[in-house]
């Protein structure tokens, strides 16, 4: 009996020693000062989601979530250039039922009916300045561009003047702490256009822009956190339509297509390039490719494993207009291997620059490139599983590029982890279950 009592006492002591010391957790700012926090970046920083910048999306932006946590360690108020309604700027999407060209009905993102308040587009500069300086569409060098508000209406609506720059309006606030996440658009706009328009920002130039931006942001002693660039080709936008998505269910279909491409294959033999051929089941789509030697074969070929199709590709054209089989998918819907390699090379270089600058300016480095890799195959956070699957993955919004509220909460927590480590702070983490995911009808 006495032995059992001793064992019970030991077990209770062990359980008590393993109990989280929640009551004794005391939030602390560490060596940082969050009195005046500003966030600088692009659409993700602004709270863009579901294809638009709208009020609720802005409220659920990761900087606004961070600001709420910073208040627990001395942070001040955080203002945002909020839209006046839930339609906002852009083409907002919700989940709804859609009937395709073949008469099949399914749940899919659809544009919201309604007319945005025209005052969404009016200047609200007189109500500023604003702590959230996220500007949809902004690239690294745009932060430094004077008069950028005249080129970008998202900035134009809250820019302090027609001639100012994003960085100038940010510096005027004399922040004590900042977050900076910029560079996604330096490759993303090129990628979303299938590499057919825009261009990738030169990595050397990117480093120069970022160095100048950080030199100015830290000149008054402000501390901050800088995030690196994730692999944008892992976004749902590039991974929802499968490259081998041409399903042939009858031998008649197979024979008809193979016969149609017999002249192509005769030319392919002469140029020693692969045939276009089809079989029962899943087949690679036929795509446009005007590079040599395919330009000598009508500018087309079958897509290769690892190449990507964008979410802009109209599904009805695949189903009923014979795109990808009798007709090639236009090149601006395709990321080929050379384009993917160019994107990857640029991101690698950008991230090396960001790592170097974070060390040089003693900033917290938020390694979102590593953190978000898990989202493609499956990321478990606070007991919930997230993936990059379009609509159902739980991490991204209905545009396949930007995060939903729970995704933003996870990103905000990654910022908090890095800030706590760099500045010996104890900023409480966000409970991501407080925020919604995709809303289903």
Pick out its properties:
441 residues; alpha/beta; five-stranded parallel β-sheet; two-stranded antiparallel ribbon
Q: Total number of helical segments? A: 15
Determine the structural class based on helices, strands and strand pairing: alpha/beta
Shape: elongated
Going across the major beta sheet, what is the strand order?
A: 6-1-7-8-15
Helix content: 25-40%
Which stretches of 5+ consecutive residues score pLDDT under 50?
1-23
Query: What is the rounded Rg?
Result: 25 Å
Query: Percent of residues in beta strands?
Result: 5-15%
Q: Say how many strands there are.
A: 17
What can be said about the biggest beta sheet? 5 strands, parallel
* Mean model confidence by pLDDT: 93
Instruction: Please give the alpha-carbon distance between the first and last residues.
Output: 61 Å
Structural commentary:
By secondary structure, the protein is of the alpha/beta class. The protein has 15 helices and 17 strands. Strand 16 and strand 17 form a beta hairpin. Helix 4 crosses helix 15. The longest helix is centred in the last third of the chain and has 24 residues. The N terminus is likely disordered.
Topology:
Blueprint: H1 2-18, E1 37-41, H2 43-46, E2 52-53, H3 55-59, H4 62-70, E3 89-90, E4 93-99, E5 105-111, E6 132-134, H5 153-156, H6 166-171, E7 177-181, H7 185-192, H8 203-217, E8 223-227, E9 246-248, H9 251-260, H10 262-271, E10 281-283, E11 286-288, E12 300-302, E13 308-309, H11 315-320, E14 334-335, H12 337-360, E15 364-366, H13 368-371, H14 374-377, E16 379-381, E17 384-386, H15 405-423
Parallel strand pairs: 1-6, 1-7, 7-8, 8-15
Antiparallel strand pairs: 2-3, 4-5, 9-10, 11-12, 13-14, 16-17
Helix pairs in contact: 4-15, 8-12
């Amino acid at each position: 009996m006495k032995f059992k009592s001793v064992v019970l006492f030991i077990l209770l002591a062990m359980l008590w020693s393993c109990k989280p010391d929640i009551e004794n957790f005391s939030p602390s700012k560490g060596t940082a000062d969050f009195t005046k926090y500003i966030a600088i970046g692009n659409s993700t920083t602004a709270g863009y989601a579901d294809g638009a910048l709208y009020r609720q999306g802005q409220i659920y932006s990761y900087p606004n979530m961070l600001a709420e946590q910073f208040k627990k360690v001395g942070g001040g108020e955080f203002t945002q250039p909020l839209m006046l309604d839930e339609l906002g700027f852009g083409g907002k999407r919700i989940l709804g039922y859609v009937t395709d060209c073949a008469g099949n009905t399914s749940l899919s993102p659809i544009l919201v009916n309604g007319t945005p308040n025209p005052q969404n587009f009016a200047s609200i500069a007189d109500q500023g300045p604003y702590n959230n300086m996220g500007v949809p569409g902004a690239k690294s060098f745009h932060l430094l561009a004077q008069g950028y508000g005249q080129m970008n209406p998202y900035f134009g609506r809250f820019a302090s003047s027609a001639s100012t720059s994003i960085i100038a309006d940010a510096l005027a606030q004399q922040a004590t702490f900042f977050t900076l996440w910029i560079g996604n658009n330096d490759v993303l706009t090129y990628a979303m256009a299938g590499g057919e328009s825009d261009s990738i920002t030169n990595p050397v130039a990117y480093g120069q822009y970022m160095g100048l931006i950080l030199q100015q942001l830290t000149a008054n002693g402000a501390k901050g956190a800088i995030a690196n660039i994730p692999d944008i080709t892992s976004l749902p936008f590039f991974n929802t339509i499968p490259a081998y998505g041409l399903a042939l269910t009858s031998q008649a279909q197979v024979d008809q297509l193979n016969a149609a491409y017999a002249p192509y294959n005769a030319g392919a033999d002469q140029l020693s390039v692969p045939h276009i051929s089809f079989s029962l089941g899943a087949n690679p789509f036929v795509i446009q490719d005007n590079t040599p030697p395919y330009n000598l074969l009508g500018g087309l070929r079958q897509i290769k494993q690892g190449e990507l199709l964008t979410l802009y590709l109209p599904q009805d054209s695949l189903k009923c207009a014979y795109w990808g089989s009798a007709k090639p998918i236009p090149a601006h819907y395709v990321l080929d291997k050379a384009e993917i390699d160019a994107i990857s090379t640029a991101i690698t270089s950008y991230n090396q620059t960001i790592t170097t600058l974070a060390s040089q300016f003693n900033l917290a480095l938020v390694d979102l490139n590593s953190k978000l890799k898990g989202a493609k195959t499956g990321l478990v956070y606070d007991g919930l599983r997230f993936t990059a699957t379009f609509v159902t993955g739980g991490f991204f919004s209905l545009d396949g590029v930007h995060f939903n509220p729970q995704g933003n909460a996870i990103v905000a927590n990654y910022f908090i982890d890095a800030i706590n480590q760099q500045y010996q702070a104890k900023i409480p983490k966000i409970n991501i279950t407080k925020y919604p995911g995709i809303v289903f009808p």
